[in-house]
Protein 1
Amino acid sequence: MIELPQGERAQTAALQFFLQRTERSALSQQRLMQQQSLSKLYQFAIAEVPYYRDRKAYPKTIETLNWQQLPTLKRADVQRFSHDLQASNVPEGHGGLVEFRSSGSTGAPVHTFSTAYAQCFWRALTIRDHLWAARDFSSSIAVIKNQAVDKARYPGIKVNSWGAGVEQLFHTGPLFSLNSSESLDRQYQWLSELQPGYLLTYPSALHELARLQLKHQQVNSIKGVSTLGENLSDHTRALVKQAFNCRIHDMYSSQEVGYMALQCPRHDHYHIQSESCLLEVLREDGTPCVPGEMGRIVVTPFHNFKMPLLRYEIGDYAITGEPCDCGIQLPVLQSIVGRSRNLVSYPDGRKSWPSYNPMALMKLFPMAQFQLEQTSLQSLRLNIAGVEVLSEPQKQQAIAIIQQAIDYPFSIDVVQVDSIERAKSGKFEEFISRIE
């Protein structure tokens, strides 16, 4: 007997039905859907959110609204006006609050809030990502991500499903989780012991894991790899294909916005998640880019009515793409230029992903921008921009935060700088290794 889905399970199933229809809808229908979402969000924002209600730049009626003439919302604005950007009330049915702290792609952490309603769409798009990547839900998945220093250390944590949204619709294998602060050798050992069906981690760490696999050939089970959080290079894609004989499926998301683009099922480019956000790729003069042209990303998430982010300049750049031949009609990003991280190297030869806890630094320096450099096997340098005074007690607190997170007594120099520039490629390098 087949039971009809009820409650959250029914909601999850309905969202998947909706997404599978809209992803193949004509562009004109997608634009109409987005206009309706923007209208509802905007009218709420100017009525309930002090930041938009009290500024002349935001028209008070939808009839006089010219979207592209609205100012963009900078990360510095979100840092400075976090309280004024929050609605005192959210619409009925949007559920409880969810809090995020994001280091982002500019080195300037932000503190944002969302709702349970918005998280439903996050989970729905997670399922879409699994379906587009054609993953076998009965298999196991290994996740190597940044966590608190004392959590998910080797031998990691096991849970019995792939997550709350997925388990409502599918029976899945287990999910294994490991802290990305573990050395790359330990991460590879962990994968060798588990032999998971799928792997999710950061591109910089994955690159080194692929090199270890080419050397040792001990992980023989992986059917697919997912990446997030950093810029993914063509070289890493090719290396993983050679090492694990499978394809990388990348995703573009952020804590404060959610999913913005997912990799195409057939190609290496990305489809914008138009049901969840309006993503604009703009020239410096604010006009839209044409296919093949690189511009700055400005994004408006549709479903966060606790802290609406209207035309949020997230700090990344992208190259727009031509329409895709895969059957999915969602707009295309040819590539995304976001943040990058090198790996931290230890005197004993270990390497690991550098989880230096920018969230704790944000509490110490609320309006600052951070970048960490490794200058030798024994020493690091923390560059801080956007602070007027950098006291000695603040320096010592910052040093303690980094040493606790990175779990090694490096000699750390804290330096106040005027600004932190992007690399020539356009990427913001959050952690730079100066070691050959």
Note: The chain has a mean pLDDT of 91.
Protein 2
Amino acid sequence: MTGGALDAHVVVGGRGGFRLDVALSAGPGEIVAVMGPSGAGKSTLLNAIAGLVRLDEGTIRVDGADVSSARPRRHVPPAQRGVVLLGQEPRLFPHLTARENVAFGLRAHGVAREIARGEADEWLWRVGLPGTGGHRPAELSGGQQQRVALARALATSPAVLLLDEPFTALDAETAGDLRALLHQQLNATRPTTLVVTHDAVDAAALAQRLVIVEDGVVTQEGLVRGVLGAPATRFAAAIAGTNRVVGLARGGGWWMRTAETEVSLAAADDASRDAAREEGVRLAALVRPGAVRIERAAEESWTGAVRIARHAEPSGGSWLARIVRLEQTPAGARIHTAEPAVAVDVAADAVAALELAPGLPVRLRVDPADVRLVRLDAAPGRPDAPT
């Protein structure tokens, strides 16, 4: 059974406080990922669609029926919406067995006890838990409990399934297994699904479309590949695994001025050169952290390094920056610099050899083949302000 269409305009809050104002839609059986920084309003959005938060403005329609509206005031109770919300915690009934937990929703929909128990066992088999129907939640691992919660959510054939970061509390291996299971079951049962996640892997693996929410509004939306390939904000660029720095078109390339120096970048591809053709237009330069090369500056103090840089011959694709922090990665470290804000991926042995540390001035270099330029007036969403 394919899920129902979702059409929602959710407005919650305001009057001097945080205001969520998000409009989104999903066709029957479509999977839409929602991403955004902490505090952007993602969970509030799902809670409003589920009926746990009342609208201040707007309307929510599920399969063509109004389930929430501000004018006229309407609020269908959560249990009557055909909407199921699954969050980070499985929230199983501790006194019921796995079978009884899954059967609970079916029984609430009027399914006879024995039929519900039989269907519950079928769903436990579907999520990889055959033979566990008699176990209570305390006897199951965290990953197994989340599988039971997923079986309970899907067993009632919801019109809309809401997933609020369902893998966050799990280890990487268990989360990977559940991601594959979820992909399989969503394709088999086809509920209309919104999945809130902080992981671009979830968006790419599960969803057809991606909606970015920042500060309570949608800043970009579109096909997952399109959003990650042309991020319209710094947050979207971060989840896509790329740097995004805003500047201007100058001399057929990208240029910006910081408090202490100037930075210019050229790009090799035709699309980027076309984007920079008109002098003075706002451009975003996209560069992957692994494509940025780093070396120690001539002086260890920022003041000394800037003084030398001012008397040096300008060099396109090379600029002086200051390290603000280091983050460990599986292959080494990600170095975050300021003026402008750029991340650089460095192997562990290079971090040690260069003796990189916060506050240290460094010189960064990028080859034109690794630069992509995007005109901001042609990019979807709300672009960042220049740095």
Note: The longest helix spans residues 172-189.
Protein 3
Amino acid sequence: MFLVSFFNYDSVYFLINVYLDSSQLALKYLKDTEVNIRNVLIMTGDFNIRDSIWDSHFLYYSFYSDILFEVADSFHLELSRPTEQVHTRYLDNQQDSNSVINLMFLRVKSLKHDNHTIYSDWRLTFDHAPLIINISIFEKHIQTRKLMLVKNSKEEKYFLNELIEAIKEINIENIQSKEVLKLIVQLFAIHIDRIWYKHLKIVNITKHSKEWWNKNY
């Protein structure tokens, strides 16, 4: 099975939390199914795969690793290396050895993301050690005002009237080169900006604000 959790910010990022059983059905599903999840930041969990790639005490290779890397690559993720290589699963019996089956994949070229840390002493009575990574969340400026022309207002009417007059006044008789055309367009854009700022209105954004712009306009 696999679970998907969401970080819902202005730029939406996703965390994929994975648990794979011994049959690896979830891994096969992720490989064979086009999962439409963009901006995955982290994929982590119990992958239940032993491989010498991430466990130096294990001498063998698992073909499931190829599938796992293929899935990670489809989300633009790469394997994170722990700050200290220790086991992630601890067994009480002596027949089986401790292992590394909890992994973390991070977004490729993600900025300022340190390698994760395995805290084996935090597991208490559990057989799996937690994997920890710090993800910085930067303060975001929230806009509380906006510049606009209110629909059907007198300001909008004046703006449209002056815009129409400005279009009528464009001289197109002496356009003899691309440079001249470019200059006329630039001057017209400057004129539009002047008209816009002349009639705009500063509106405070509140929880009661409503957008009038929709697919019908």
Note: Confidence is low (pLDDT under 50) at residues 1-10.
Protein 4
Amino acid sequence: MIRSLYTAATGMTAQQLNMDVIANNLANVNTTGFKRSRADFQDLLYQNTLAAGTAATQGAQVPTGIQVGLGTRAASVERVTTQGDFHQTDNPLDVVIEGEGFFQVQLPDGQIGYTRDGTFKVDSQGRLVTADGNAVVPQITIPPEAAGHVMVSHDGAVSASLPGAATPQQLGQLQLARFVNPNGLESQGRSVFRPTAASGNATTGTAGLKGLGTISSGFLEMSNVKVVEEMVDMISAQRAYEINSKSIQAADEMLQIANNLRR
């Protein structure tokens, strides 16, 4: 009977983690480039009281045996990398990736971070940066006289109409990066990811080539969180948590009955 107490407790712990993941998804429903997460679970070890195939009588075997499970645990929290909806902003420095790929930014420690958030701005030095001031890699500098006249093509070429120039002048090229296993990236917060041994090394290239997505200017990729789906998952997690708590309550009542037995 004590075993059922601990088994149900693992179920409550698992659903608590599930609720934490759902809450984070809902909190980021309006976060640009955010990818929702999903908690995956697996069953724990089984106690084998009677192994299947054990000889029962002469010439006969036990067909199924007796196995009692010991609960569940979290196996992983997987990031769902489906494309989010696009929101039109008409700001030429707002860019979106249609398909696979990440923008590259230089983090304060000098390392390269990767993001789907294309909310770019210009700093005091004219560099193209993120909202946190991290410079885009490779570095692109926009002269002051080009303000308001910047264009970004589908392959990531950044150009601008400069005074005295008959044709737009190219200022730089946005490069995209992709990974063999994007789910293996480590989230650093602020919509930035770092590579890990599980994600593999980044493969960089021009947008639209080698499996990389294309770039569109004047749009932003919104979160891929579906509020209705998250609410349904929340109700399911809440009910599963409640059912496990009922199991603990029932096991406690059965122990109480056993403890109250008298001769």
Note: DSSP finds two helices and 20 strands in the chain.
